[in-house]
């Protein structure tokens, strides 16, 4: 190995809206943690404007060669259209996930102590919450056949046994890692098996696998009931495994347990090759350019990148601890500000400086 190969290469995909603001902030943080080589590429709306495609070939090729990819967000009103033939920014993100084979999306939900009063839910209800949503990311209704006629439309939802098996196994592995040597790995599989054929296949496959993997304590919940229990009894959950669209919706809901969508990070992983690390939230067009964006979901995604993508768990922990300290000192971006206690309202830049200072 020559010397240059030892410096991890990170592709930055800032994207649209607040994406460039939060990715730039994350880069300053990463620079304080270690030495990385960066390459920046267009995706989403900016890529449509520059090249006509939401995922230019050169962007996908660069991501394939990188050690890890850090993404901001894509989309915005400029590219919103109901024309089925017009390119959409979101196609860039979906194409990237599919192109890199990133079928497992990990979205950890663990409220930070300092934010227990920032959630719309009562502190005593959310205290102790520590769950992980494992979302299937390259199948289901997102990737089925689409059809549009003037007065009708179709989105097909397909799952294969193999697709369900691999995401269930990813969830089992995650549950085992979380349980450690002493705990019991617990997985809740979420579906709509009372209505959907894909869910009945899902339930059959997950149940069968759990009998082969006797250490896993498995239960099943219908998705509507899960949505309810996430707010009524969030501490009952450990690992939630679910299909693509249910995982999308449930994770935005679960984000509010942490105080804000602006806090939730994610890792999208495949069999091998680079993962994509990105905040769960979108491009927040309503606050883009105002300097108000909460950068912490992106910082925590950078931490997940160090842990899951670059083999640097210590660096990950340094970032996570620094985020906790900045919040512990009372700093709050607008999405977290409750107007009570000794909170200090700040923007993206001050929050970034505080996390840097706490490193
Ligand atoms: P959104 O997540 O962008 O915003 C929802 C609300 O949360 C807004 O009020 C926004 O201001 C707030 N918010 C989100 N992130 C925040 C942050 N870091 N700091 C402070 N406040 C934050 O969802 P939306 O408005 O429904 O979607 C906007 C665009 O983003 C759409 O084009 C959508 O397709 C896209 N989107 C992209 C991704 C992604 O790139 N991964 C994810 C979700 C939505
Ligand atoms: C997410 C987003 C994306 C999704 C969109 C932008 C395609 O909402 O990452 O959660 O639905 O997967
Ligand atoms: Mn989403």
Any overview of this molecule?
The protein has two domains: 1-105 and 264-359, Isopropylmalate Dehydrogenase; 120-258, 3-Layer(aba) Sandwich (Isopropylmalate Dehydrogenase). The chain contains twelve helices and 14 strands. By secondary structure, it is α/β, with parallel strands linked by helices. Strands 2-1-3-12-11-4-5-10-8-9 form a ten-stranded mixed β-sheet, with helices on both faces. A two-stranded antiparallel sheet has the order 6-7. A hairpin with a 6-residue loop joins strand 11 (267-269) and strand 12. Bound molecules: nicotinamide-adenine-dinucleotide, 3-isopropylmalic acid and manganese (II) ion. Residues 18, 73-76, 90, 93, 261-262, 278, 281-287, 293-294, 297, 335 line the site of nicotinamide-adenine-dinucleotide (NAD).
Labels describing this entry:
single chain; alpha/beta; Isopropylmalate Dehydrogenase; 2 domains; 10-stranded mixed β-sheet; two-stranded antiparallel ribbon; 12 helices; 14 strands; globular; binds nicotinamide-adenine-dinucleotide; binds 3-isopropylmalic acid
């Amino acid at each position: 190995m020559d010397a240059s190969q030892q410096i991890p290469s990170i592709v930055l995909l800032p994207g649209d809206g607040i994406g460039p603001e939060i990715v730039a902030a994350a880069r300053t943080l990463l620079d304080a943690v270690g030495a990385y080589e960066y390459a920046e590429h267009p995706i989403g709306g900016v890529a449509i404007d520059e090249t006509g495609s939401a995922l230019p070939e050169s962007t996908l090729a660069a991501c394939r060669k990188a050690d890890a990819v850090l993404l901001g967000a894509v989309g915005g009103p400029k590219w919103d259209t109901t024309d089925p033939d017009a390119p959409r920014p979101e196609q860039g993100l979906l194409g990237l996930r599919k192109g890199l084979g990133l079928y497992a999306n990990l979205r950890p939900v663990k409220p930070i102590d300092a934010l227990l009063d920032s959630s719309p839910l009562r502190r005593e209800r959310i205290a102790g919450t520590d769950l992980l949503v494992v979302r299937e990311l390259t199948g289901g209704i997102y990737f089925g056949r689409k059809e549009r006629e003037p007065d009708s439309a179709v989105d097909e939802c397909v799952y294969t046994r193999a697709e369900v098996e691999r995401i269930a196994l990813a969830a089992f592995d995650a549950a085992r890692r979380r349980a450690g040597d002493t705990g019991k790995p617990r997985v809740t599989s979420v579906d709509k098996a009372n209505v959907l054929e894909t869910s009945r296949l899902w339930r059959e496959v997950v149940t069968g696998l759990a009998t082969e993997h006797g250490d896993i304590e498995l239960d099943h919940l219908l998705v509507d009931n899960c949505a309810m229990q996430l707010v009524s009894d969030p501490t009952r959950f450990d690992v939630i495994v679910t299909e693509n669209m249910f995982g999308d919706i449930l994770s935005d809901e679960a984000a509010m347990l942490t105080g804000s969508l602006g806090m939730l990070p994610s890792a999208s992983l495949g069999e091998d090759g680079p993962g994509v690390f990105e905040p769960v939230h979108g491009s927040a067009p309503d606050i883009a350019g105002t300097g108000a964006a909460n950068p912490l979901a992106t910082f925590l995604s950078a931490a997940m990148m160090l842990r899951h993508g670059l083999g640097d768990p210590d660096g990950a922990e340094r970032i996570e601890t620094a985020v906790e300290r900045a919040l512990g000192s009372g700093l709050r971006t607008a999405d977290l500000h409750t107007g009570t206690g000794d909170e200090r309202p700040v923007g993206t830049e001050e929050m970034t400086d505080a996390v840097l200072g706490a490193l």
